[in-house]
Amino acid sequence: MPDATFATPDVTTFCRLDELGLVVVGQQVEPDRAVLLCRVEEDDAARWCRRCGCEGRARDTVTRELAHEPLGWRPTTLLLTVRRYKCTGCGHVWRQDTTRAAEPRAKLSRTALRWALVGLVCQHLTVARLAETLAVSWDTANAAVLAEGQRLLLDDPTRFDDVKVIGVDEHVWRHTHRGDKFVTVVIDLTPVRDKTGPSRLLAMVEGRSKEVFKTWLAARPKAWRDGLEVVAMDGFTGFKTATTEELPQAVAVMDPFHVVRLAGDALDRCRRRVQQELHGHRGRKDDPLYSARRTLHTGADLLTDRQHERLGKLFTGDRHVQVECTWGIYQRMISAYRDPNRVTGRVEMSSVIDALADGVPRPLVELRKLGRTLARRVCDVLAYFERPRTSNGPTEAVNGRLEHLRGLALGFRNLTHYIARALLEAGGFRPRLHPRL
Questions:
Q1: For residues 179 and 183, what is the distance between their CA atoms, to the nearest angstrom?
Q2: Which DSSP category does 302 fall into?
Q3: Contacts of 336 (CB under 8 A, 6+ apart)
Q4: 19, 121, 190, 248 - which has most CB atoms within 10 Å?
Q5: Whole-prediction pTM value?
């Protein structure tokens, strides 16, 4: 670097303490941490009493200890020497202002708070790792980072701007011996539809019911609700009813993942029923129906020659004709969604729903039940073909990220902490904290 210009080494600038109004006057490097002795920059206005306006004189000094961002992952502590003044008029005592360095009574400097928030959101570090690197307790790190994330990111009034498409789903936040505890998650799918970015978590509400989702919608501003165009969801009727009542102008879309899953569940139930009727026991590894269970769920256009041969043997004769009929409906639904022409796919899906509405033989109880379900939600199922890229798939992806978060933290007992951590993890804040992401 022949053209580079170097300045005199300066610990204050290197540690970015000039941004906090501090000047390094000493250092002590210990085996497990580094301590920087700092003084607060002089301010002439601080010498005057705010009560009577008289000039104050230096009385003594006190020290304030702050955790700073680590240098090379070595915990760094700031030891601030704060001067105290006493008014020559009224006798009032005050100290130098250190709010540039940290909030009153805070244990972390503002730079440390920023570092911890970036580590939590962008680098997916655990609170335990942050606390260890900052040399503070877990409770101190957790409370400080969540409060900063709430102030800087979650309380941002523009976070809900330009939301046109949302997805809603349930999520298990805590597995207990008395049953799972659910929350309702609301996802912004507008970036996915517009191809401008990934989906992001908007809200997480305790409970899983129509009232929970309806109450959350009712609490949002009317102008925001009126701007929603599409709501993607699964087959849960509670979400559908809440959407109809609170968002009459929005179009409900039942996403392909859950529609195909309904058909796949019908296929599994049919296979198990036929297995019991023919053999009198559950599937075993040598039973043809059981050994083909995964092949039955593979799309027809993805089957290998060996899988085609296996299905050909399975459907030879009339023993498995009910499974074959259910498998045929399952494959037709998959092909309808995979059709590159949305109009053709919609016609194919509509014909499948019409075929299941009537004329299904009585022994095919699984297909009859599937037909009743699809008939009730026919408009929601067919709406996907008119509004592509509005599926609930990105919602399931966010659910997967939340599962990873829960495993990373070894579980959560406090729902409030979990909601805050989940919003910071999947709320789409990474580009704001790290412009290169």
A1: 13
A2: G
A3: 345, 346, 348, 349, 352
A4: 121
A5: 0.83
Q: Where are the domains of the chain?
A: 11-154, 158-255+391-433, 256-386
In 235-343, the DSSP E strands lie at 251-254
* Residue 29 to residue 315: CA distance in whole angstroms: 76
Residue 275 in 3-state DSSP? helix
Cα-based distances in Å from 40 to 49, 59, 101: 18, 15, 9
How many other CB atoms are found less than 10 A from the CB of residue 91? 12
Q: Are 34 and 74 in contact (CB under 8 A)?
A: yes
How many residues in the chain? 437
Q: Which CATH class is domain 158-255+391-433?
A: alpha beta
Q: Give backbone dihedrals phi and psi of 291, rounded to 5 degrees, phi first.
A: -70, -20
DSSP bridge pairs for 232: 167, 253
Residue 97: C-alpha distances to residues 22, 41, 100 (Å)? 11, 9, 8
- CB contact at 8 A, 351 and 360: no
pLDDT tens per residue across all 437 residues of the chain: 556 678 878 899 988 899 999 999 999 998 889 999 999 988 888 888 888 889 888 899 999 999 999 988 899 999 999 999 999 889 899 999 999 999 999 999 999 999 999 999 999 999 999 999 999 999 999 999 999 999 999 999 899 999 999 999 998 888 777 778 899 999 999 999 888 889 999 999 999 999 999 999 999 999 999 999 999 998 899 999 999 999 999 999 998 988 999 999 999 999 999 999 998 999 898 899 999 999 999 999 999 999 999 999 999 988 999 999 999 999 999 999 999 999 999 999 999 999 998 889 999 999 999 999 999 999 999 999 988 778 878 888 888 899 889 888 888 888 999 999 999 999 999 888 886 65
Alpha-carbon distance 46 to 84, whole Å? Answer: 10
Task: State both tokens at 43.
Answer: 């301010």
Category of 252 on φ-ψ map: left (φ > 0), alpha (ψ -120 to 50) or beta = beta
